[in-house]
Predict the 3D structure of the following.
Amino acid sequence: MEPVYASNAAAREEPFLIRKARLEDLPRIIAINRATLPENYPEWFWRDHLEKWGDAFFVAEVEGRIVGYVMSRVEYGAPTFTKGLIVKKGHIVSIAVLEGYRRRGIGTALMKAALKALKERYGCKEVYLEVRVSNEPAIRLYEKLGFKKVRVIPMYYLDGEDAYLMAREL
Ligand code: ACO
Ligand code: ZN
């Protein structure tokens, strides 16, 4: 039989798997964070989130290698969308996908897994995050998932860039 060559890039991409992060994944997760984002954290910070809110901390694997992660936490605060004094909120602290593995749905799948866990496992009513106002790819991803820009946080980042606070109901 003649070989059939795929004409679209998607058909050449290896499948990916989303699973919960484990303690032994942390060195790789931290390395991906350092390679992709200027917002870096000490090892204890990652371990603390894994221990406290590990059911909303996911990695993406391609051929057995971790290529992306999403780390969340749970907080209490003033509601953005409803009345009342206090609400349980999910906070997407950090998400990243290695450069060669972007634009194939991994970021979306990581976010969906985190949102589902924040809602179903932790009982969060809404979820929020901060993102650089210049980070068009991430802003698009969040908007596609129903996040809205709530406000600008001036000078949020160490280099002086502003952040959008983005949020959605769960
Ligand atoms: N340009 C425009 N839109 C984009 C881009 C881009 N470069 N990348 C993603 N999008 C939008 C598109 O609408 C895309 O859908 P489409 O491909 O069907 O058009 C949608 O987002 C979903 O894309 P995914 O393939 O699911 O996302 P990906 O796996 O590429 O991951 C991510 C997106 C995580 C933002 C990635 O670009 C990344 O790791 N960037 C560097 C790290 C980073 O900026 N992280 C977010 C910081 S904010 C925070 O952590 C809370
Ligand atoms: Zn944050």
The first strand starts at residue 16 and ends at 20. DSSP finds four helices and seven strands in the chain. Residues 91, 93, 129-130 surround zinc ion (ligand 2) (CB under 6 Å).
